[in-house]
Amino acid sequence: MIAHWDEVEPRLNTYGHLRARWADLGRAAGSIGVGVRRIQLDSGDVPTPAHVHPVEEEIFYVLHGSGLSWQDGETYEIREGDCLVHRAMAEAHTLRAGDGGLEVLAYGHWMRTPGAYLPNANRYWLNPSWTEAGHVSHPFDAEPELEWPEPGARPVNIVNVAEVETEEWGERDMGGVARFLGQAAGSQRTGLNHEVVQPGKLNTAPHCHSAEEEIFVVLDGEGALVLGQGEAEHPVHRGHVVARPPGTGVAHAFRAGADGLTFLAYGTREPNDICFYPRSGKVFLRGVDLVGRIEPLDYWDGEA
């Protein structure tokens, strides 16, 4: 439920010219259907081959440093506070760290690639192509070094938090400012929001989701995760990661401390999601954009 990125041991992956330190923050916090990894790169490091996901949408957020985003043979400068969105079956992409290194958060939803395994033929069907099964060298070992041309004007799938329009909210004990980074960079299946919560305020009314899974990463300030029917408060500060899987029935929200609280909120856009607010008894049917209030139901009273 709660982890801290300093307590998640990173794994150093090195394959030829590819090198990076990876820390699986999502699994450490208990996520089940979405994930976030912290990738740390030294000067000149490239973490992965240029790649395209057939189903998964990826969102990256630059925590520290600078570098280059490689996309379909072109490069673009990236810096702290940038958000990059790579949709499924879109541009091939990877990163390279600048002179001072680069540190990013990589978000994604875990999707199974369609296909089938043929045990007698020892083949995998990765629709629409085929590949041999069995033990072979790691595919990263076969990746050639890329050409890195001079960077050009940044495309629409890269935005910086300082350049995205803000949306303010404030009602009763809630208040703050949000920037919808993922949406601004063109995400379709997932979202990443940058939220700054006012001192002593909640970011939203405590709520729980039926289908959407959320992951929160605290960037600055101190505060508390408000959890459960009794609204117990659990302290959080920079580096804390909170996973809220769907269908738990346990409501959550965040309360900012004396100096405010800043965090990233990642989630999937599930059209069949129902959001429940226990304080008011309201339900939000997100797929049809309707809000109603529930009443207690006795399933044994003979009424449908």
What does this 3D model show about the protein?
This protein has 304 residues and is an all-beta fold. The protein folds into two domains: 2-159, Jelly Rolls; 163-293, Jelly Rolls (Sandwich), CATH 2.60.120.10. It has two helices and 23 strands. It has helices spanning 25-29, 181-184; strands at residues 2-4, 11-15, 18-24, 34-41, 58-71, 74-79, 82-86, 93-109, 116-118, 123-126, 129-132, 158-160, 167-171, 174-180, 190-197, 208-209, 214-227, 232-237, 240-244, 252-268, 274-277, 282-285, 290-293. The strands form four sheets. Strands 1, 13, 14, 15, 17, 18, 19 and 20 form an eight-stranded antiparallel beta sheet that branches. Strands 2, 3, 4, 5, 6, 7, 8 and 12 form an eight-stranded antiparallel beta sheet that branches.
Average pLDDT, to the nearest integer?
91
- Helix/strand-derived category reads mainly beta
Spell out the CATH superfamily of the largest domain: Jelly Rolls
SSE order, one letter for each helix or strand: EEEHEEEEEEEEEEEHEEEEEEEEE
Whole-angstrom Rg: 21 Å
Unreliable spans: none
Q: What fraction strand?
A: over 45%
Q: What's the quick description here?
A:
It contains 2 helices and 23 strands.
Q: What is the strand and helix layout of this fold?
A:
Layout lengths: L1 E3 L6 E5 L2 E7 H5 L4 E8 L16 E14 L2 E6 L2 E5 L6 E17 L6 E3 L4 E4 L2 E4 L25 E3 L6 E5 L2 E7 H4 L5 E8 L10 E2 L4 E14 L4 E6 L2 E5 L7 E17 L5 E4 L4 E4 L4 E4 L11
Antiparallel strand pairs: 1-19, 2-3, 3-4, 4-8, 5-6, 5-7, 5-8, 7-12, 9-10, 10-11, 13-14, 14-15, 15-20, 16-21, 17-18, 17-19, 17-20, 21-22, 22-23
